[in-house]
Amino acid sequence: MSDHIPFHIQQEILKRLPVKSLIEFRSVSKAWKSLIDSSDFITAHSLLHAQPQHLLLRHRDWHHPLKKIYVSLLNEATFPQLRIVQTCPRSIRRFDFPKIIGSSHGLLCVHDSYSEVVVWNPSIRKSIAIQLPSMTYDRFLFFLCFGVCPVTLDPKIIKITQFGQWCEKKRKISKYWKVIVYTFSSGEWRKLSYNKERRKSVLHKHTGPQVIIDRFIYWSALYPPRPQYRNLIMSFDLTNESFEVIDLPHNLACHPHNQLSISKLGESLVILESSKNSDNKLVFVVWKMEHNVQRSFTKLFTIEAQHESIAKVLGFRESGQPIMEVKDDVSKKSKLVVYEPNSKNFSDLEISGVSDEFYVNSYEETLLLFDRSIVLVIEMITLSHTFVDSGLDFFFFFFETAN
What we know:
By secondary structure, the protein is α+β, with helices and mostly antiparallel strands. The protein contains eight helices and 25 strands. The strands form six sheets. Strands 12, 13, 14, 15 and 16 form a five-stranded antiparallel sheet that branches. It has a four-stranded antiparallel sheet with strand order 3-2-1-25, with no helix packed on it. The chain has a four-stranded antiparallel sheet with strand order 4-5-6-7. A hairpin with a 5-residue loop joins strand 15 (230-237) and strand 16 (243-247). The radius of gyration is 22 Å and the shape is globular.
């Protein structure tokens, strides 16, 4: 770019370029490198406009079942022709059973054990490992949430510990929760202040996906039996760090909880209601939540295959087409297909592998994490590792639901 163009104009032009171009342009001059590497530029670039969307597919090869393969597909008109095999960072490759907790603002949070999570930006091939604090009560069930605050662009990891039956009997109160939050800006874990407005507890479903839309993280939960479990959805607000309960319509609230899951379609939360037809094959009904209004869900379409055995719905394209795993009843292999709701046709993505080992997550191109130095990563891990239970008091959350 010509030296005759004022630098602030150059800066405005660079803000509008894709991530791949910016990585290459860092070598043009020291001034550009310094600009692109700065936290202010990364924040401005991330907030300015939407970046290209990708789908990250993970599966295990049929011929090499121990090998985990990550493939990135551009979620646009070229889908599914343009494919890039992603090279995972070493911190993820050493995981035996990596689970992607969530995807937010181009960052993927991956977890495998009780001790560590990895936040990965596949667009710039950078990752950061964060030690989970060692707690004396980690024998209890806990689960993790992840999201990037859309206001500050500060990534957050939320750890929620749910206590067991002995705690219920001792306290005469149902399910206790303990919540701590890690923010990248501070490099520290801290406890979340007590929410006194919630009085009744809910039970988190430890399986199933989390969905991040705008400033909210959503996940499936259950209200304890009285007389039976009721399905509901929990949300966590990344901006004010508050929890809310989303009640479901009666037909969804009373549906078998292992046949209900949530997903993301565009910028909307959807519920996948599964059941079996007369041929003992899975059928999925897709429900969309309307404008965050509780109990307001609209039926979009039904997925039913005549000659295929649908295993699960893994996610959605931006165009609204579901991506699904389909099993071959003879070979016991699985493949990925895309379903077209209007024509009711299935398109083969020509990706096959071990059954029940397919995962789909969407992410966008971003520069987030690019300004994180190796020194900062070491400091963050050290701070997290020294965080022990003695520094935190027990506190509990109760969540009120409608009867």
